[in-house]
């Protein structure tokens, strides 16, 4: 079956360890586009944190698409028209903010404009997220948060061992209400229950009239598992976590070895 749609994660997949797109990866993506394959970047990043790479790959028309916030938003790449939106409410923020204090983990939340934290001593992991996404940080107490804000995602953030311990304390009932997914060892993302990269790939493929078996997904971390499971061919990078590799149909080379290029040349 011919592959017609490929979703590609950004950090640890499209990018090498210096946050660069290797020339071989860029060249192969452009070649596949010329062959008619739809290339879609799919990331936990907000839109603004993806745009530099979208532009570098020239995926900028309204027949190109972007999956951001781990599937909370699917947009056209040209006009940024929102096609799919799964956001969180203020009441849900209050619930998860209280949870973060109960389980001993820091928290920040994001909308389309900024990162918001109630931690006066701002976590270095909030600073890291700001650096990765090019989004400003805004200090807001819980009481100062806008009740009408549409929250794209919330993130429990901490040292990996602290976050692992906190994750074990999350009540089972909350897993029925939210999607919890690790995007990095120090980031545990909290999403609308309907938001995932896999659901976004499904929705986009249906919109484009592309069959499930005509799709491929490439990723490296646990937030990529849902799209690896949905895709006709799910590809884990050579540098992917062991858990992610368990859900892959194929294992590529690492992000330092142009693993995206290898996957596209070999299976697409």
Protein described:
Helices cover 32% and strands 23% of the residues. 47% of the residues are buried. The protein starts with a strand and ends with a helix. The chain contains ten helices and 14 strands. The protein is of the alpha/beta class. A hairpin with a 4-residue loop joins β6 and β7. The protein has two domains: 5-85 and 195-267, Rossmann fold; 90-192, Hypothetical Protein, Haloacid Dehalogenase-like Hydrolase, Chain: A, domain 2 (2-Layer Sandwich). The model has no long low-confidence stretch (mean pLDDT 96). It is globular. The protein has helices at residues 10-14, 23-34, 51-56, 90-103, 124-133, 160-167, 197-208, 225-230, 242-246, 259-267; strands at 5-8, 38-42, 65-68, 73-76, 82-85, 106-110, 115-117, 137-139, 153-157, 178-184, 187-192, 215-219, 233-236, 250-251. GO terms for molecular function: magnesium ion binding; phosphatase activity. It comes from Vagococcus lutrae LBD1. InterPro entries: Cof, HAD-like_sf, HAD-SF_hydro_IIB, HAD_sf. This is HAD superfamily hydrolase.
Topology:
Layout: E1 5-8, H1 10-14, H2 23-34, E2 38-42, H3 51-56, E3 65-68, E4 73-76, E5 82-85, H4 90-103, E6 106-110, E7 115-117, H5 124-133, E8 137-139, E9 153-157, H6 160-167, E10 178-184, E11 187-192, H7 197-208, E12 215-219, H8 225-230, E13 233-236, H9 242-246, E14 250-251, H10 259-267
Parallel strand pairs: 1-2, 1-12, 2-3, 7-8, 12-13, 13-14
Antiparallel strand pairs: 3-4, 4-5, 6-7, 6-9, 9-11, 10-11
Helix pairs in contact: 2-10
